[in-house]
Amino acid sequence: MMKRRDTVRIALGLMFLFPSVSRSQNPLITDQFTADPTARVFQGKVFVYPSHDIPVEPGKGRPGWFCMADYHVFSSENLSDWTDHGVIVSQKKVPWADSSAYSMWAPDCVERNGKYYFYFPAPARVKEGRRGMSIGVAVSDSPSGPFTPEPEPIAGVGGIDPNVFIDKDGQAYLYWAGMGAMSAAKLKDNMTELATERQVIQDLPKGMKEGPFVFERNGIYYFTYPHVENKIERLEYAVGDNPLGPFQFKGVIMDESPTGCWTNHHSVLEYKGQWFLFYHHNDLSPHFDKNRSIRADSLFFEPDGSIRKVVPTLRGAGITPADRKIQIDRHTALDTSGASIAFLDTSDRFLGWKTELRKPGAWIRYNSVDFGTAGFGSVVVCAVSESGGTVEIRSCNPDGRLIARVTVSPGPDWTLAQSALANRTSGVRNVCVSLIQGGPVAVDWIRFE
Ligand code: FUB
Question: Could you give the domains of the chain?
Answer without folding.
Answer: 24-299 (2.115.10.20), 320-448 (2.60.120.260)
